[in-house]
Amino acid sequence: MGKRYTILLLVCMTLGSSFASDPVFNVGKLTEFPELQSKVTRFYPNPATTVINFEFDKSVDKTYSLLICNFLGKRMTEVRITEPKVVINLDDQYYRGLYIYQLRDQRNRIVESGKFQVVK
User: Fold this and answer.
1) Which CATH topology does 38-120 take?
2) Residues 59-80, mean pLDDT to the nearest whole number
3) N or C: at which end does the chain have fewer Cβ atoms within 10 angstroms?
4) pLDDT confidence band for 35 (50 / 70 / 90)
5) Distance separating alpha carbons of residues 25 and 11, to the nearest angstrom
6) Predicted local distance difference test score (pLDDT) of residue 100
7) How many CB atoms lie within 10 A of CB 50?
């Protein structure tokens, strides 16, 4: 069991390190792939207390939705993107901790994701 785990770990590390040299994952090369440029231009404040604001690139499709989940995967909020700025109220359901946001397209595929922190 120990040998299998070690081999699996080495394979994962080797595969993971190859992504760093891939131009798709190289931040300096994102201009070569315009479809990979960030759709969420900024989100603030981070860490958040009562609200968090998301600002989107003007190229964001109106069929996109913003999904926020807690770190355990529970869906907290989902809103359709209709404006270039969305304000999410962090009500009593949002406890102190890390949260994941996902920008999803009409087919529910993840376009972009990130994380933010809530401190209360």
Assistant:
1) Immunoglobulin-like (2.60.40)
2) 94
3) N
4) low
5) 19
6) 97
7) 11
- Give residue 96's pLDDT: 96
User: Look-up: residue for tokens 């809103």?
Assistant: 79
Measure the CA–CA gap between 79 and 86, rounded to whole angstroms: 9
d(CA 27, CA 31): 9
Instruction: Quote the tokens at residue 56.
Output: 């989107």
Q: Which structure tokens are listed for 62?
A: 């109106």
User: Which residue is associated with the tokens 């958040």?
Assistant: 48
Helix (H, G, I), strand (E, B) or coil at 19: helix
Residue 32 backbone phi and psi in degrees, to 5: -75, -20
In the block, tokens 């359901």 appear at 93
Give the start-to-end residue ranges of the domains of the chain: 1-37, 38-120
The span from the first CA to the last CA of the chain, in angstroms, equals 43
